[in-house]
Amino acid sequence: MYKKVVSKAPGRVCLFGDHQDYLGLPIIATTINNEIKIQAKKNSSNEFKINKKDLGLVDIIPLNKEFDKDESDFLKIALNVLRDYDCIPKFGYDITITSTIPINSGLSSSSALIVAWVNFLLTTFTNYEITSNLLAEISYRIEVLEIGGSGGKMDQYTIANGKTIYLDTITDNIKTFDHNLCDMVIGVSNQSKDTQGLLKILKENASKSIEIVNKNVSGFSFKNIKNINLDECLEFLDENMKPYFRAAVGNYKTTMDAKYEFQKEQLNIEKIADLMNIHHNFLKNDLRITTPEIDDMIDIAKEFGSIGSKIVGSGGGGSIVCLSKDRSASSKIVDELKSYGVKDAFIANLGKGPTINYE
What we know:
- The chain is an alpha+beta fold.
- The chain folds into 2 domains: 4-178 and 352-358, 2-Layer Sandwich (Ribosomal Protein S5, domain 2); 184-348, 2-Layer Sandwich (Alpha-Beta Plaits), CATH 3.30.70.890.
- Helices cover 39% and strands 23% of the residues.
- Strands 1, 2, 3, 4, 5, 6, 7 and 12 form an 8-stranded mixed sheet that branches. A 4-stranded antiparallel sheet has the order 9-10-8-11.
- Strand 6 and strand 7 (174-177) form a beta hairpin.
C-alpha cells in the first residue's frame, strides 16, 4: 500500500503516418519531454477525488461502482477494463492531474493521461509485471475499443514505449530507433480540433476508396507498394474518392522510405526532413486537414530555418512540428510563431517512457 504515487507519461508527435494507423498501415512517431503528471495521495475514503488542475475541474469516482458502457469518462472506463486484470482498488486517493502537454492540440494529451492512469492503477493495486506493451494494449482498449474512438494504435504504443518507434499496426510489432533527432519546434494553433468527427470522415472515405480499388485491381496490395500503378487504381474512383486513396498510397510510401532512413546507422536528417515535407503535402493537398493558420505557421517555420515541417494530429487545428538543425534558428522560429499570435510555441526534446514513483 503506497501513501503517495506519482505517475507520468509523455506527449506524442507523429513524424510519419498521420491518418494511416486506422487503415492498418504503419506509422513512425516519437515522444516529447512534455508530460502528463498524476500525483496521488492516499486518503481515508473509498473514493478517488480527482482535481484536473489545468481544466479547473473536480470529480469524485466511487470505487465500488461498475460504470455503464455508455460512460465517456475514460478514467472511469479504465476501472471497468482493469477488472479483467484483477485490478480492483481497495482504498481511495486524492489525485491531482497536471500537464505540460498542450490540451486538444494533436500531441496526445488524452492518451498520455490514459497511459499514466493505467500505470498508476496497475502499480498500486496489482502485482503485474508492467511492460510497455501491456500499458499500450490496455490503453488502446480503453480509448478506442471501449469508448469507440476513431483513432488507431499510434498514440498508446508510442507513449508506452517512450521512444521513436516504427509500429506495424496489424501485428503490433515495434522497431525502436535510438537516433537523436535535431530540435523539434512545436507550434500550437489557436484552433481546437474535432478529433473524433474528422477522424471518422477521413477513415470512412479512405477505407471506402481502398475497398473499391481492391475489388477492381487484381493483386493490389500495400505490401507491393513499388509496383502499384496509381493511375490505374485512380481510374476506378470518382473525383471525391481519389484524394483519399492517393494520400493513403503516398503517405504509406513516405513512411516506408522514412523507415529505411531511420534504420541506417547514421541518420540523414535532411532526408528525413524532405520526407516530412512530402508527408505534409499529402495531408494538406489531398486530405485537406490544414487550416489557414496552420498553413501560415508552416510558412513562417520554413522562412526562418525549418528544414522539415508538418501538421501533427488529426487536423482541423492542432499543432505543427518543425525540424531545425540550428538552435538559433529554432529560437527564431519560436519567436516568430509567437509574434504571429499562436497559442504556444516551444522547442521540444525527445521524451522518455512512462515513469512511476511511490512511497
